[in-house]
Design goal:
This protein is mainly α. It is 74% helix and 1% strand. Helix 2 runs antiparallel to helix 16, helix 10 runs antiparallel to helix 14 and helix 13 runs antiparallel to helix 17.
Length: 436
């Protein structure tokens, strides 16, 4: 282990080590989040509304508020004591599932909020081990695809526990967490062994430091139009991902797939591998500006895949199994870059001293606002569609808008970069003229 974990950030073994550890660590963290979605809670309602939708809304509200709080907390997060923070937040989320199981309906819904808030802080904490390295694209892609794989894996584990041991829908999340907590301890220990970025990393990707209020305000002011476009794009991706993630059990049931827990992993594993190869390959692009534009190309392609595959599905050309794979691939091609490489390359392109966590949480906070808004619009405002119809119609229209916004973002950052390059060239010419 001592040979593997050394301070040479350029060492390929170190990059692979970090990628594997953070992937497995976040997969374990996901075990405390989504296993309840494998249950459909058929026929259960609260005040006339779907009980499961109320559960999802409460958890997403916790996530949403955590993201807004995390804009400051993650931006100012110090690099010491992070392992203890991860274990404390995870333990709180696990304890919430115990109370969810023992407190009667409908009062137990509050514990979904209690579960969501601490878990919503963890992505930024884990990503702080990853950012600012020349191998961040590969490591970040590996970390980001963990929640694609983990989403299916955790549901498969929860469904298996429910079917094999006849565990109640209310106890499945707690026992799933019980299975995931011991390995989480081990992987957090390994994360704490990860050395910080070295001088070469800082030269290629800029130094990553905490950002105070003034630093955050200055950054947003410098890139406001592009950030607004990116946040709206990310909002769309979050809405799509959350509906597919939270209500995939209902959609599979509506499409005729019953009691098949393995289907969650069957559809998510190919998507995980494809995304890992696509996004991870960006580590080969040394030029930060070219990598930033490549990320835009991936996002454009993702919207196109999601929209076209859904049109074909609605017309009966694509079967449900392949549609769920293709639409998942498209949505994650939009979603993953923002969580893995986009903001890291943005900071590196314009040589800004700061951290990625601030930008991820800024985008995430508004993304979850959109996700909550969609859930409310369907249930609270009585938009009466089944989940397959609601999801497919939304994907088609929002993919079209997403394509236009991505083109705008691509052109905005290209113009911004060229002006910066021109200003730098003029300054260098002026210095040379004075020297002569």
């Amino acid at each position: 282990m001592s040979d593997l974990i050394k301070k040479d950030g350029s060492n390929a073994k170190l990059g692979i080590y970090i990628a594997v550890v953070v992937f497995l660590a976040y997969t374990m963290i996901f075990g405390f989040r989504k296993s309840f979605t494998v249950a459909t809670f058929d026929g259960m309602q609260v005040a006339g509304y779907s009980y499961k939708t109320i559960l999802v809304i409460c958890q997403v509200l916790g996530y949403m508020l955590a993201k807004f709080y995390g804009i400051r907390y993650i931006a100012e997060l110090k690099r010491t004591g992070r392992g203890a923070v991860i274990l404390l937040l995870t333990a709180i989320s696990w304890l919430s599932w115990l109370f969810f199981a023992i407190v009667p309906v409908p009062y137990n819904v509050i514990f979904l909020f209690v579960n969501g808030f601490p878990l919503g802080m963890l992505w930024g904490v884990v990503f702080s081990y990853v950012e600012g390295r020349k191998s961040t694209d590969f490591i970040g892609a590996t970390l980001a695809v963990s929640f694609i794989f983990a989403s299916g894996f955790v549901k498969s584990v929860g469904g298996w526990l429910m079917l094999q041991f006849n565990i109640s829908e209310f106890w499945v999340p707690f026992f799933t967490g019980l299975a995931f907590f011991p390995p989480l301890l081990f992987f957090v220990y390994l994360m704490e062994k990860i050395p910080p970025p070295d001088e070469e990393d800082e030269l290629l990707r800029t130094r990553r430091v905490v950002m105070d209020k003034e630093d955050r305000r200055r950054f947003v002011g410098s890139f406001l139009p592009g950030l607004v476009a990116c946040i709206i794009i990310y909002c769309f991706a979050t809405i799509f991902r959350d509906i597919r993630d939270n209500f995939s059990a209902e959609m599979w049931k509506e499409m005729g797939y019953f009691n098949q827990p393995a289907i969650f992993s069957k559809t998510e594993t190919p998507v995980t591998l494809i995304i890992l190869v696509l996004i991870g390959s960006m580590v080969l692009i040394k030029n930060n500006y070219k990598a930033l534009q490549t990320a835009h190309v991936f996002i454009l392609s993702g919207f196109a895949i999601a929209g076209i595959s859904t049109l074909l599905f609605v017309n009966g050309t694509v079967q449900p199994l392949y549609w769920m794979m293709l639409v998942g691939l498209g949505l994650y091609m939009v979603y993953i870059p923002f969580n893995a490489v986009f903001f890291d390359r943005l900071i590196s392109t314009f040589r800004y001293t700061g951290n990625v966590g601030f930008l991820i949480y800024l985008a995430d906070s508004f993304g979850y606002v959109g996700s909550v808004g969609v859930l409310f619009s369907k249930e609270i405002f009585t938009v009466k569609l089944n989940w397959v119809t609601f999801f497919s119609n939304s994907v088609i229209w929002l993919s079209a808008v997403g394509l236009l916004l991505t083109v705008f973002s691509m052109l905005y950052f290209r113009t911004k970069y060229r002006r910066l390059a021109e200003a730098k060239a003029e300054l260098e010419n002026a210095i040379q003229a004075e020297a002569i």
